[in-house]
Structure formats: structure tokens, C-alpha cells
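#struct-help
A.M.: can someone run this one for me? Single chain, 229 residues.
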Amino acid sequence: MKKIIVAIDGYSSSGKSTMARQLAREIGYLYVDSGAMYRAVTLYALRHGLASPEKGVDVEALVKALPEINVSFSLAADGTQHTMLNGEDVEREIRLMEVSDMVSPVSVIPEVRRRLTALQQSYGVDKGIVMDGRDIGTTVFPDAEMKVFVDASPEVRAQRRVDELKAKGEEVNYEEVLYNVCERDRIDTTRKESPLRKAEDALLLNNDEMTREEQMAWLLDNFKRIAGE
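D.P.: on it. C-alpha cells below:
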């Protein structure tokens, strides 16, 4: 079976990262969470006063700071992949609502996207990779052999996000999360640089009413079909 690139795109909180991570584990591929990379840059901006909910993003200052921002991944003791920001494990911090509220304004900055796109592309040189995000099949790996676009209603995605955060001990409000989901959709689909959209040759997966087991069976069936061609 040949090695391929699997590109999984979709809306925020659609479950694409969970399924991409599990698929990579099932087939023995490298997994890269591109969204985590944008969250790490956002966390850096928040920590250094380059972004805030009140003032927005200081684009010029953040672009100037990009050479000082190093995003990488490492395997934790339990085998899960953690995001590293300048050598610090920030996997938990980048999932907080504070970061979620600011990640879209940061990720629309062209210089940020170009820097991270180049880094993402370097991971796929030897193929054998599963990467999820919002422009993987359209910009990062337009020639990926397997492309999937994950869709689900904003209400379903907001509830999933609430359940995820509450499981981590976070106090969250459903209406606030729903607003965040819809606002990120708006920003992601209307930005000038690599907007979120379904690639013409991508397989559509609407998982509103699918279990994780059903999603994985669907992904594995399509992977085997494409990689075995």
C-alpha cells in the first residue's frame, strides 16, 4: 500500500482533529494538528500583549515577533502529541476559550499563514501524514491524494465544545461558545488569505449524527480504497 497525504479540513469543533489523530494512529502515519500551531502563535501574542479581546491584534508587532516564535510537537508519556511553544508544553493552554476567542483574528494575518504553511508543508515531504485544519486540501497540500471536508451544524459543534471543556473542568456557557463557533466560521470563510472552503475533489463528511466509530469506519474504508489504488 503506497504512502499518501491525508488532508482533513472543516469547521471549528467539527471533530476533525479527533478523527485525524485516531486515523493516523490506526494507519501508522504522522499526525499534525495545524490548528494547534495557530493557537500557539495566538497564545504567544496574548502573553506578550500583542493581542487582546479589547484591542484586537497588533499585526505589525506580531509579524515582527514571528522569528522568535517556534512551534513544534512532542510525544507525551501517554503517547499523545503535545504542542510546544518555544520549548514549553502548551497543549492545555491553547485549548482555553481565551485563545479560542482570538485565534481567528491571528490566523487571518497573511504573514502568519505563510510562515506556518511552509512549516506544515515540510512535514509532508515524505508523505505518510495526516494533517487537519482549514486550508490543508486547498493551500497546504493541494495535491493530497485523500482530502476530506468535515461539516456539522453550529449547534452540534457548540455542544461538543461545551462538553469537551466541561470534561476538562472549565466553566463555560453554551451561548458564548455558540457565538464563538459562528464568529470563527464567519472569519474563516471570508478571510482573503486561504479561506476555509471545501476542495473540489474533497470527500464530504457530515458527522451531525455519526458516532466516532462510524466516522472512523468511513475514513478507514476511503483510506484503504485510495491508498490501495
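A.M.: thanks! The mean pLDDT is 92.
D.P.: also worth noting: The two ends are 8 Å apart (CA to CA).
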